[in-house]
Write a structure and sequence with these properties.
InterPro entries: DinB/YfiT-like, MST-like. Pfam families: MST. This is Mini-circle protein. The chain has about 190 residues and is mostly helical. The chain has one domain: dinb family like domain (Four Helix Bundle (Hemerythrin (Met), subunit A)). Helix content is about 55%, strand content about 0%. The protein is built from 6 helices and 2 strands. It has a two-stranded antiparallel sheet. β1 and β2 form a beta hairpin.
Length: about 190
């Protein structure tokens, strides 16, 4: 007997997929985006949606559960971490002092991701607010080759780094979710 949940998928057309293509908010029947910025934004949007999909249908206890010991990662911790990272990216392009941490001490985004609905609700609010603020800050730079901040980071590099960060953590979310209830992603 194993404590591991049985693997399952909500997909019926392709049983190894997270959901059926007709139900997937990331699927687009239209043409691909025009231009580099629009393409980067579409990839980022899709990874943001993927993270949300991996968390759907779970309660506060499930979201906060650390399913891959000894890692301190949980799905809720990932949501909080990405809110913190969005805030940090604005520091990279700013010339002033770093913005204060949302959750305090190092790794508090993971360590304090506790199974309380208020913590879950606040994490999603924080993520949405920080994503919108970072999107707005980056929109002020129409030239992706422009450099900003004390380290003169290229805006293009920052956009690609954001995609990489979400993509990496969506991979973590796949494993966390599968260990939690057996649901597998595509």
């Amino acid at each position: 007997m194993s404590d591991r949940p049985a693997r399952w998928s909500q997909g019926t057309v392709h049983p190894d997929m997270w959901t059926d293509p007709d139900d997937d908010p990331r699927e687009c029947d239209g043409p691909s985006p025009d231009g580099e910025r629009a393409t980067l934004h579409e990839f980022l949007t899709n990874y943001r949606l993927t993270l949300r999909m991996k968390c759907e249908g779970l309660d506060a206890e499930q979201l906060a559960r650390r399913t891959v010991p000894p890692s301190t990662m949980s799905l809720l911790g990932l949501v909080r971490h990405l809110a913190e990272v969005e805030r940090d990216w604005r520091t990279w392009i700013g010339d002033g002092e770093p913005l204060p941490k949302l959750y305090g001490a190092r790794d508090a985004d993971f360590d304090e991701a506790v199974a309380e609905q208020a913590v879950v609700d606040a994490a999603y609010d924080d993520l949405e607010r920080e994503q919108a603020a970072t999107d707005a800050a980056l929109a002020a730079y129409p030239d992706l080759g422009a450099r900003a901040g004390r380290d003169r980071i290229a805006i293009r590099e920052l956009l690609v780094h954001r995609i990489e960060e979400y993509a990496r953590h969506c991979g973590h979310a796949d494993l966390l979710r599968e260990c939690l209830d057996g649901r597998v992603g595509q």
